[in-house]
Design a protein that fits this description.
Helix content is 43%, strand content 28%. By secondary structure, it is an alpha+beta fold. A hairpin with a 3-residue loop joins strand 6 and strand 7. About 3% of the residues have low confidence.
Length: 271
């Protein structure tokens, strides 16, 4: 073999080796790229699965948190309403104390977060039922008692007149009852009801339950304003006569009774 033939043979070998190496690297590079794409795709799938899993846990935690706070708010509302149930019949259902209103409002907020169709009226219904249920259980355990239904048995009356033709009522009389001896108000701002009306006069009254009122002497005063053709405004105007509440013995039993005291007389106890 000549030197020239040996030179060409070396070049051919080098070319074949280079081609084989290039083909081998290409195949390996394809495998590397394929493995890298598979790894990235697997990472993306794992990330999506993890995000979905974490999101599901977060939603469950949020739901449990909302439900927990709703239950806590419900119990607070029931606890706030419970002490006021004995006087429930004395005023409208929407006229609870601010403490009860705040507690029921909190329960309503948490309930709406869970169920957008929930309403404040539904809250009052649910809280009221549970409060009455708790009250009944306390009564059974002798840890509470139920007051008798209020039966008003004394009437405060006021007649306004004579009035000129064309008079109007701007502010109807509101009655406040004071203890005559101490000056303390025992009932404030009771809105009196109209009972009779003529062209020249108007009459109002308000019934008072004296069953649980301590014995003593009481006086009622009213504030009112008459407008139109009659310009009349009264503040702390006495209503009728003073009222004396006392106990007396009837058929071997103590009963509470009352009598009116004219303004020119003194109470029988000397005051």
């Amino acid at each position: 073999m000549t030197q020239i033939e040996m030179h060409h043979s070396g070049i051919d070998f080098l070319c074949q080796a280079t081609a084989w190496l290039g083909q081998h690297l290409a195949e390996k590079w394809f495998d590397v790229v394929l493995a890298l794409l598979g790894t990235l795709f697997g990472y993306w799938l794992a990330k999506r699965h993890l995000e979905h899993f974490v999101s599901g846990i977060a939603e469950k935690i949020d739901a449990k948190y909302l439900d927990l706070n709703r239950r806590i708010a419900f119990r607070r509302a029931v606890a706030a309403m419970l002490p006021e149930l004995p006087q429930f019949y004395l005023r409208p259902t929407s006229n609870f104390s601010s403490q009860v209103a705040i507690a029921v409002g909190e329960f309503t907020s948490w309930s709406i977060a869970i169920d957008p169709t929930h309403t404040p009226e539904k809250s009052m219904e649910l809280v009221g039922k549970e409060a009455y249920k708790c009250a009944a259980e306390l009564i059974q355990k002798d840890r509470g008692f139920r007051e008798e239904v209020s039966i008003p048995n004394y009437e405060w009356q006021i007649g306004i007149g004579p009035l000129p033709i064309g008079w109007t009522v701007e502010e109807p009389p509101d009655l406040t009852i004071f203890n005559w001896d101490t000056g303390a108000a025992v009932y404030r701002s009771a809105l009196m009801k109209e009972t009779a009306r003529t062209t020249t006069s108007i009459r109002y009254s308000w019934m008072w339950d004296i069953k649980d009122v301590p014995c003593g002497v009481y006086v009622g005063v009213v504030n009112f304003t008459i407008g139109g053709a009659a310009k009349m405004q009264r503040t702390a105007s006495p209503v009728g006569e003073r009222l004396r509440i006392f106990l007396r013995l009837e058929k071997g039993q103590l009963v509470k009774t009352h009598e009116n005291i004219p303004w020119d007389d003194k109470p029988t106890d000397g005051k």
